[in-house]
Structure formats: C-alpha cells, structure tokens
Amino acid sequence: MVGSVSGRRQMRWFRSGNMAVLLLALSLLAPSCGFKALAAETVVDASGRTVAIGPGTRILTLGSDVTEIVDALGAGERIIAVDRGSKYPAAVAQKPNVGYRRQLSVEGLVALRPDLILAAQDSGPPEAIEVLKSLAIPVVLVPEDNSP
Questions:
Q1: Are 26 and 38 in contact (CB under 8 A)?
Q2: Phi, psi of 31 (to 5 degrees)
Q3: What secondary structure does DSSP assign to 88-139, as a single string?
Q4: N or C, which terminus of the chain has less Cβ within 10 Å?
Q5: Which pLDDT score, from 0 to 100, does residue 55 have?
C-alpha cells in the first residue's frame, strides 16, 4: 500500500508539467545514463531563480517528496543527508538527518559539504534559505504543485 501511495504521489508530481523540474531530473540522471549532452546546466526553481546545478554528486534533500523523487529517478546513491520527514526508501534511514525542513540550521547543512541542495518549496525558515542561496552551494526549491 505504501508503494502505491508513493507511486501516485510521484505520478502527480511528474504530470504537473513543470519543465524546470523535468530538466533537473534529466540533469541528475543524464551523467549516470551516458546522456551527458542532455544534462541541464541550469534550472529555474520554484522561486523563479535560475540556478546552475553543477555535478550533483553529493545531494542533500529536504522534503520527503523530494527524497522519494530523487531516489525514483535513480540518483538515491547520491543523497548524502535528508530531513526528518524523509523515511522512504529504507536506505535513507542510514543517512545523516538534518532535522525538520522548516527549522534548518545553515551551519549543519554546510558542514555536510553537499554540492547540491534540493529543497521542498516550503523549507525554511526563510532567513536560512536566503543564507543558503547566497553561498556557493546550488539550492533548488522544488515546486509544491500537487495538481494534475
């Protein structure tokens, strides 16, 4: 049952028609699939910012939906840490936990040395997100669009 609920949630997410997120997905998968030419170098995130995403070999995910999607796209082994709500797939339970995604500590996140942070649009507090955006680590806010 859990898998089917998760699968429906992922399908809703994929059907949302968000081209920026699709490009991000391609950029995450492209290097591992041999499609280097298809890898997106930049994406437009949920806040409208154009973000140069870099290699994405050490990904920190914030939001259970974001974690599940990154894993479903075949990049789960690149996840280095997750937020408290990320409990699936089972392998993420072994990853460092950075706490609640709406009460982030910038120092704790940066100490993990991610080269890409994929965060649910409602991550925060807003001040922490602004500090993260000002650093050299690419931060992509994934849109929370649950509509078909």
A1: yes
A2: -60, -40
A3: -SGGGGGS-B---TTS--HHHHHHT--SEEEEETT-S-HHHHHHHHHSSS-E
A4: N
A5: 87
- Strands 116-120, 79-82: pairing kind: unpaired
Q: Which of 93, 36, 35, 30 is nearest to 64 (CA)?
A: 93
How does pLDDT run across 18-29, given as a tens digit for each residue? 445 555 665 555
Coil, strand or helix at 115: coil
The model's pLDDT over 81-110, given as tens digits with 9 standing for 90+, comes to: 999 999 999 999 899 999 999 999 999 999
| One-letter amino acid for residue 58 of the chain | R
Query: Are 59 and 32 a contacting pair, CB within 8 Å?
Result: no
**Look-up of token digits 């399908």:** 11
